[in-house]
Specification:
It is a single chain. By secondary structure, this protein is of the alpha/beta class. The chain has 3 domains: 36 residues, no CATH class; 56 residues, 2-Layer Sandwich (Alpha-Beta Plaits); 328 residues, no CATH class. The protein has 17 helices and 11 strands. Strand 5, helix 6 and strand 6 form a beta-alpha-beta unit. Helix 1 packs across helix 2 and helix 1 runs parallel beside helix 5. The longest helix is centred in the middle third of the chain and has 18 residues.
Length: 429
């Protein structure tokens, strides 16, 4: 009987060859089904029997911050409605019985069929994940070789959402005691607030994530296209199934899954030609690590509502560009990892805020510390910082590519888009 890893490699190879991925002997039919049809598979599933004692299962259950693991006579079980895909249980399982879902095989099949344009949307943390010499331009070339119609850096949409959150901050935080929580980046952070701290939802702007913003934009400009998000996060696989977000992204792949595909296809990433296009500002790229979102929003508030300057000179026209100087500056407080985020929120509820703009990231180090990152989070951060320093633009307010993208959507200014379009809005329950 093939192990899951052996089966996965064989099915992926058959998908690349355009063959039937299910026609494999000496394999568990359940595992074949999970890999061939991941849309029907939970984020975390049990690949083999759990033989742990009830006491051991109790210890396993404690690693989950979402109460999604439950001991039982048949072994540990997973509550799919509560699981957010943090992967803590997978990392803690001594039996290696818990596995995360993989979506790569149906994506390869879509690429082989080539019935519609398929765009890759790559998370800002990609820098250095596939090798120190694998630039954005080489990654774009590689993805096109696989059959993708193009590659978009999700950091570009982080730029637009930075401006959105900056405008929300300017509107909502005008006196001592007012505060705002980040809304647009980490699905675990949002899930935590919605499920455990629902009373704080009025302080969360109704913004989609950069991933969803990118997917929605592609669907507007190319209505028949398929969208594939690629990043270090398992929770993104859950995010795309949120009722108000469905349809923006068709598939979510991790960096691990993409690496496996490059390995199977023998693509030599380091020696490919560069395929470069204008990319995001330094601020948008730095969404990839803890503190990056808050840094970007704080800088945008300062640039959009400066002390003696008009927003017009930055290329971002605002009706209130002549407003009096802001009396309340952005005071950032942030946390990364679920325990630290919980501690920060608890202190907010107790009145110990020490800030007015709170950033939360579910993974230690931010997205660069995601469970499917390919390099250590410290190196990932350095890679992202180096790439961001190459950007011509420090903030999204200076980025002409943002303005050009909005013009393609039918809007002349950032303000017009943010006030007259609901494309990047979401309605929280």
């Amino acid at each position: 009987m093939l192990t899951l890893d052996e089966l996965y490699k064989k099915m992926l190879a058959r998908a690349v060859e355009g063959k039937d991925v299910t026609d494999i002997k000496d394999a568990d039919p359940k595992m074949i089904e999970c890999l061939a049809h991941p849309e029907e598979t939970s984020l975390v599933w049990r690949a083999k029997d759990c033989t742990c004692s009830e006491e051991e299962q109790g210890s396993c259950a404690q690693v989950c911050h979402w109460d999604a693991l439950h001991p039982g006579k048949d072994g540990i079980s997973i509550d799919n409605d509560k699981c957010v895909g943090c992967q803590a249980c997978v990392d803690a399982c001594k039996l290696d019985a818990l596995k995360t879902k993989k979506d790569i095989i149906p994506v390869v099949e879509e690429l082989k069929k080539a019935e519609t344009p398929i765009y890759a949307l790559v998370a800002p943390a990609f820098s250095g994940q596939f090798g120190s010499k694998v630039t954005a331009g080489r990654l774009r070339t590689a993805l096109k070789m696989l059959g993708f119609s193009g590659m978009l850096e999700v950091a570009v949409f982080a730029d637009i959402l930075t401006l959105k959150e900056a405008l929300e901050f300017n509107k909502n935080v005008n006196k001592e005691g007012d505060f705002q929580l980040t809304s647009c980046c980490c699905p675990m952070w949002i899930a935590m607030i919605r499920r455990l701290y629902h009373e704080l939802m009025p302080n969360v702007p109704g913004s989609v994530s950069p991933m969803i913003a990118g997917g929605r934009t592609v669907k507007v400009l190319h209505p028949n296209a398929k969208t594939v998000f690629i990043g270090p996060c398992m929770a993104k696989k859950a995010e795309i199934k949120e009722p108000d977000l469905k349809g923006a992204i068709d598939y979510v792949l991790t960096y691990e899954e993409l690496r496996d595909l490059f390995t199977t296809t023998d693509i030599d990433l380091e020696h490919l030609e560069e395929d470069n296009v204008p990319h995001a500002s330094r601020a948008g790229i730095r969404y990839a690590y803890a503190g990056g979102v808050a840094e970007a929003v704080a800088a945008a508030v300062k640039r959009l509502f400066p002390q003696r300057h008009s927003g017009r000179r930055l290329g971002v026209r605002l009706k209130d560009r002549h407003q009096p100087n802001r009396k309340i500056e952005v005071k950032v407080r942030r946390a990364d990892s679920v325990p630290d985020c919980k501690a920060m929120i608890d202190s907010i509820l107790k009145g110990n805020r020490e800030g007015n703009f709170f950033e939360g990231m579910g993974c230690r180090g931010g997205c660069v510390g995601g469970p499917k990152a390919l390099v250590p989070k410290e190196q990932g951060k350095l890679n992202v910082m180096a790439y961001s320093d190459e950007s011509t633009y420090k903030t999204p307010a200076e980025n002409p590519y943002v303005i050009e993208l909005l013009k393609q959507l039918g809007f002349e200014t950032v303000e017009e888009f943010l006030t007259k379009s609901d494309l990047y809005d979401r309605k929280f329950d």
